[in-house]
Amino acid sequence: MSETPETDEGIRLQKVLSQAGVASRRAAEQMIAEGRVEVNGELVLEQGRRVNPQKDTIRVDGSRIPAPRRHMYTVFNKPRGVVSTMDDPEGRPTLTDYLPRNTRLFHVGRLDTDTEGLLLMTNDGEFANRLAHPRYQVPKTYLADVEGLVDNHALKRLTQGVTLEDGPARADKVKLIARNPQAQRTQLQITLHEGRNRIVRRMMDAIGHPVNQLARISIGPVRLGQLKAGEWRDLTREELGGLLDLVQM
Predict the structure, then answer these.
(1) pLDDT tier, 70 (very low <50, low <70, confident <90, very high otherwise)
(2) What would the mean pLDDT of 82-90 be, rounded to a whole number?
(3) pLDDT tens for each residue of 231-244
(4) Is 112 a catalytic residue?
(5) 11-65 fold
(6) Using the 8-state DSSP alphabet, how is residue 10 labeled?
(7) Where are any strands of DSSP class E within the chain?
(8) What does pTM read for this prediction?
(9) Residues of CATH 3.30.70.580 domain(s) within the chain?
(10) Which of 88, 97, 112, 205 is catalytic?
(11) Cα–Cα distance, 109 to 143 (Å, whole number)
């Protein structure tokens, strides 16, 4: 028997889950029967439910299942010394030097030239605009190697807030990684949702511990992991789903 064609009413839910790589259609049907699948916040138990994956929010075990990708969403590990632009009139290395030819992507936010680490790149303008907007408060985590031995009082100042020339700034979380008395250096992990220019460096200057080396290691659910400097990869389904939730798309 031939398969029932899809209609304007939508696509069968089990087919959407199968196309998203969640499970085979038969396994997806079992997930639905077990009450593990939601559509727009509603638990779905009946088989054959039709959905519009571009408009409906689908979750399995609470995790967002993004619609089939019409855009590119990538993670790039920007090396130190690379300018966060697609071209540079001074001839310095740029993001274009590391991406495949004819790949039309733009970066979401930026990292200063001396900062390395995670940059998100996409050709989805609405996604990029929301991700960069302060309204959604997407957390970003940095690994900072700084001058001097940062004491507990200084750590508390970062989370309570410091005053910068363009207003107050506060870290959401600060974790002490290591103090090195011999080198008079401290390594910190700093999480904040601010997106202002050179925000981490300026906060550390404000408490008297200038940054020697800085790397962004995560944005929301996206982790740099083992991605080497100069390399890029596509976002996973789980990462993209998590970011879509954060920016309410």
Answers:
(1) confident
(2) 89
(3) 999 999 899 999 99
(4) yes
(5) 3.10.290
(6) B
(7) 11-12, 37-39, 42-43, 50-51, 58-60, 63-65, 73-78, 106-108, 116-122, 140-147, 162-164, 167-169, 173-180, 185-192, 211-219, 222-223, 232-234
(8) 0.80
(9) 73-135+221-246
(10) 112
(11) 18
